[in-house]
From TrEMBL:
Gene3D superfamilies assigned: Ribonuclease Inhibitor
Disulfide bond keyword on record: no
Domain Leucine-rich repeat-containing N-terminal plant-type: 31-70
Keyword field: Leucine-rich repeat, Repeat, Signal
Organism of this sequence: Protea cynaroides
Residues making up the signal peptide according to the UniProt record: 1-30
Cross-referenced Pfam families: LRR_14, LRRNT_2
Lineage: Eukaryota, Viridiplantae, Streptophyta, Embryophyta, Tracheophyta
Name this polypeptide is given: Leucine-rich repeat-containing N-terminal plant-type domain-containing protein
Domain of life (superkingdom): Eukaryota
Record-annotated Disease resistance R13L4/SHOC-2-like LRR domain positions: 79-176
Alphabetical list of InterPro entries matching this protein: LRR_dom_sf, LRR_N_plant-typ, LRR_R13L4/SHOC2-like
Amino acid sequence: MSKSVLFGIMDIALTLIITLNLLVISSVSANSEGDALYTLRRSLSDPDNVLQSWDPTLVNPCTWFHITCNQDNRVTRVDLGNSNLSGHLVAELGKLEHLQYLELYKNNIQGTIPVELGNLKSLISLDLYNNNISGIIPPSLGQLKSLVFLRLNDNNLTGKIPRELAGLSSLKVVDVSKNNLCGTIPTTGPFEHIPLTNFENNRRLEGPELQGLATYDTNCS
Ligand SMILES: *[C@@H]1O[C@H](CO)[C@@H](O)[C@H](O)[C@H]1NC(C)=O
Ligand SMILES: *[C@@H]1O[C@H](CO)[C@@H](O)[C@H](O)[C@H]1NC(C)=O
Ligand SMILES: *[C@@H]1O[C@H](CO)[C@@H](O)[C@H](O)[C@H]1NC(C)=O
């Protein structure tokens, strides 16, 4: 074998090794979304085993049931409505930067809405209705510039409706009925078109807000 052929083979071998290394590195970083979802799985109780296919050793979560990815293998949907889940949401959900649909309605999820959900810049739909979620509606949700559907009804949420939400021009549907919210109902921006029934059954929520005339609930924090 001539020297130049030998060097040629070594060249190809080296290129292969580098390519393989890059593949390994990129699949590891892609699976940070799998890690985030697996953290959610560990935080939930799942008596019906709907999360059984969520195997964190796979290169990405795109073959898991109830998960949808785009062409770049980034998670765009989590569809776990009506799945008999209990337990808590996790901050790691905020890492799914291409997530468009977070569907967790009709479960028995407790705890609070993680502030980090405000990082989900692509989110179109946040459906957490019919759970047992407490705490406040995080003002950070006012960063969700793509949000169209915000359904938080039938939970145990307290505090005010964050005024930050009034700045979301894409928002079309808001339902916060059947919670424990206080303060007044916003009327500006997207709230101009939300029916009052979507605010019903909040003992201390007053309104709609009349600019300068409403009595504000000063005990509301
Ligand atoms: C939900 O899970 C409970 C156990 O925690 C079980 O008894 C019940 O049958 C499940 N409900 C449905 C609709 O699967
Ligand atoms: C809802 O969560 C609270 C704790 O935040 C708990 O005390 C209550 O039992 C839960 N309700 C249901 C129906 O699971
Ligand atoms: C709402 O939360 C309070 C405590 O913050 C709890 O006493 C109550 O049972 C909860 N309501 C429901 C329907 O779970």
